[in-house]
Each structure stands twice: as C-alpha cells, then as structure tokens.
Amino acid sequence: MPVHATAALAHPISAAVEATAWDDALIRRYDTSGPRYTSYPTALSFHDQFTADDMTQALERSNASQKPLSLYVHVPFCRKICFYCACNKIATKNTALAEPYLSRLDREMVLTSRHLDTKRPVQQLHWGGGTPTFLTLAQMSDLIDRLDARFGLSSAPDRDYAIEIDPREADVFTLRHLQSLGFNRLSLGVQDLNPQVQAAINRVQPRVLTETLMDEAHRLGFRSLNLDLIYGLPFQTEQSFADTLSQVIELSPARLSVFNYAHMPTRFAPQRRINEADLPSADEKLAILRTTIEMLTQAGYVHIGMDHFARPEDSLAQAQRYGTLQRNFQGYSSHSQCDLIGLGVSAISRVDDVYAQNPTQLSHYEAALDEGRLATVKGLLLNKDDLMRREVIERLMCDMAIDLEAIGQRWQINATDYFSTALERLKTAEQDGLLVRQGLYLQATPTGRLLIRHLAMAFDNHLQHQGNQRYSKIL
Q: Least buried of 1, 136, 274, 376, by fewest C-beta within 10 Å?
C-alpha cells in the first residue's frame, strides 16, 4: 500500500465530519475564485525561461525512477464550436487539415522518446481536444501506430486508455474501431439534455445519440463510460437539470463529470455568443448543485470530489478508498505515480520534478518541431517547497483529508512549524465547519468537500504573487 494510503482510510474523526449539514449562506460566502489544482504550482507559475533543454534533462532524469508513463494527446479540431467552450481548438470540417498535424505529432514523439527508456509501460493514454473523433478511422489507426512505434503501447488488462467522444459525430463503427485500437474507456460529452439549453450553446444533441453509443459501448465491453455534464448554462433551472439528471441516471454511466460553467467572455471568444441574461442566477446554480449531489448520491454514486462522481465499483472510487487517487491535467485519475507526457498544441507534461507546456498557437507549435526541437515554450522546475506542497494539495484534493504529521516525517520537517501559516489560514474554515482537525490530521466535512479548492489554497505558496482574478469561481 502506498505511503499516503492511510489518509483516505477510516479515522476517528470521520463521524464528526459527516454530521455537518448543507448551508447555502456559508457556501456562498466561500464561493470565491481559485485554482482547480490539476497541478501545483498551477500553470500561471510557468515561465518562459524554462526551455526545451530543461524538458529533455527532466525526461532523462525520469528514467531512473522507472515510473510507468501516461500519454496525453491533444487533438485540437472541432467541426462545430460549442459556445461554452474554453478549450484550445480549431473549427473546421476538413479532416485533411489533420494530416500535417499528425506528422508534427509524430516528430514530437520521436524527439521525446529519444530521451526515454521506452521499456517503461504506458499505463495511461488519453486523447482529448478539441474533438479526437474528428479524425477519420484511418487517421486514428495511424496515430495509434505512431504512438506504439515510439513508446510501445500496452495490452495489459489494467491499462487505462481513454478518448473523449462527441456523440453527434461518432457511431457504432467508431466504437468498434476504437476498441480494436486498444481503447477501453470512453468519455462522452453531453452537457445537458434539454433542447432549449442545447440550442443556446450551439450543441443540439438528442438523447438517442448518446443512448445508442452507450448501449453499443456496453455491448462491446468497454470497461468504464464517463458522461460530461455542465451546470450554469443558459436557461438551466434546478428542475430542468433534475430532468437531465433523471435521464442520465437511467443511462447508468460508471462515471460522471458535472462541471461548473465559468462565463469568461473576455478570455474565450465563443462565450460572447451566450447572452449573460439567460444564465441562471448564483442562487439557482447553487440549487442545481445541491440537487445534483443529492440525486446522484441517492442513485448510488460516490462523490469523489469537486465535479467527479463514480459508482462504488469503478476504479476511480476504489482508488480513493485505497488512497491512490491522483489529480492531473485531465482531472482525477486512478493510476497514481505516472510520468505524464503531453503531446500536441497546448499540451502540458508532468515529468520528474518539472512541468513543461507546448505553445497554445498551432503555428508556434509547428515552427518549433519543423526546426527539429521540442515545442516546450514554458514550464517550471519545482523546488523542495513546491514538491512538498504539491503532495499536500494533491492528497487533500484526492482524499479530502491530509495527515501533515506523515508529510513531516516523509520530508523530515517539523510540519507544525512549516505549515503554520496554512494552519492559521484554515482556522476560520475550521470554525465555520468546513473541516475537522485533530492534531495535524485535517479532514474536510461534506461542505468542505464542495469547497476543497478553498481549503487547498491555504497551502498555496504561489497564489499571493498571482492574485486569483484569472481563476474561475469555485462553484
């Protein structure tokens, strides 16, 4: 069992934790802006003094650990823009435009794999976007072949090979093909099943499209299906979203991601097509969230944390029970302790003690690879303080609890002194019932689980230099 596993197991203060009740006024008071902590330090701390050479050295250092690999491939193309979208994407219907991009991806793979011991197993593979199913079946085969040639893909039954799917442009043949390529987990974008909401976000998607794909995926034996929903979209109400949830519960996916829509039209141009007056009020959003948690919990789902729910038998819920859950740029992951290699425009890698990010502009990404160098444009080398706080924040985000005494022993520090500022910051949250503390063991209450980003911010040593104006609201 991993050294941090005990943080997620039963603890004497658990009974006290479960006793707290939902409090609208309290939740609203803490619903400020803050990081999602898919990494610590967050991407706002990355800087352009970090170079491709720094990334190369990190790749070579990582071989000593013999950690398994996780590969993320960013496919930026979409046939149609959804108005809520904040992803890095290119709108086009011409699949031929993907060919030069696939060639650049292969060049990036070659340059990366030169510095890696490719005998290390690839436990995780994730294709995101954009819309990965924008690619033709032949292009998908080509991309898998290139990944296998450069890194050596796995056929192990416990591998986690996932792809994000738009049900409007995938069919049963797509699923059969994906299965033949080795994918065993699917994530389907749904967002909302209400026709008025769908029209307002430019994503008309009848339930039958999703249902047909899910039926076929179950028949083919895909291990885990995830559905993405979004709350806070135009024309949503507590009742309308409850109707969507009722239909989704009938479909019985293994996992659900229920994201909070962050309306930032100054940063994301497609969002300017959304009429702000049509968005639900803060009170309505909170009511939607409460109903979501109640309905999914009653239906047997475990609230993993933040926006993730899973059935108790799913690997995500099992990983949380055993203290091996991890947080990465794709959200929560059941495969801990992998070195993550990000491939493609805007992709971020987490390797050894560094983060490295590729350019967000396609032309800059292409230019770097055409010059025969890795496309790293910025990143960060973590110091000891960063590494310690990353562990604290990640365990808190994953386990909803943290044993600072165990952290102190592992890092050979006096945790009481070292984290004194953070503990001081958390006093008000403790008084308000967001967490229960016994010595150096801190556990979030049900309300604290909702506001776990706020609790994690107490340990963030970079936040004071960034301000939080560029982060989304917590709820």
A: 1
